Amino acid sequence: MTGFIQVMVTTETPEQARALARRLVEEKLAACVQILDSVESTYRWKGKVENARECLCLIKTRENLFGKVEAAIKALHSYETPEIIAVPVLDGSKEYLQWLDESLI
Questions:
Q1: Region for 69 from its dihedrals, namely left if φ exceeds 0, alpha if ψ lies in -120 to 50, beta otherwise
Q2: What is the pTM of this model?
Q3: Which residues contact 39 (CB under 8 A, 6 or more apart)?
Q4: Beta carbons within 8 Å of 16's beta carbon, 6+ residues apart
Q5: Which residues make Cβ contacts (< 8 Å) with residue 40, sequence separation at least 6?
Q6: What is the DSSP letter of 64?
Q7: Residues 14, 35: contact at Cβ < 8 Å?
Q8: Which CATH code of 1.25.40.850, 3.40.50.10140, 2.60.40.1730, 3.30.70.120 fits the domain covering 4-102?
Q9: How confident is the model at residue 2 (pLDDT cuts 50, 70, 90)?
Q10: Is 65 left (phi over 0), alpha (psi -120 to 50) or beta?
């Protein structure tokens, strides 16, 4: 059983991460959002190598909700091009996956 994904998105501030997490969970687009504060990112942006402190959100959801999750992220996000990456959940405990499924629309 899966069809579940984990979506990763970075935010500029912890406040933005918390607002995003709350909206996704309240709207049942995510069962859980974990926020890892203060990750360091190195990336190329507009021809320059940049460094930034960011928050990383790990969003647990279902594959068929990705479009709605992506739209919600873009509506709240301050970045011109936010990182929005989904990876499949290949397996998990039966009880956790059942909870995940019941927590989503």
A1: alpha
A2: 0.95
A3: 10, 53, 54, 55, 56
A4: 55, 76, 77, 78
A5: 51, 52, 53, 54
A6: G
A7: yes
A8: 3.30.70.120
A9: confident
A10: alpha
> CA dist 73 to 8, 10, 92, Å?
11, 10, 25
pLDDT digits (tens, 9 = 90+) for 63-104: 999 999 999 999 999 999 999 999 999 999 999 999 999 999
Token pair of 64, please? 């068929």
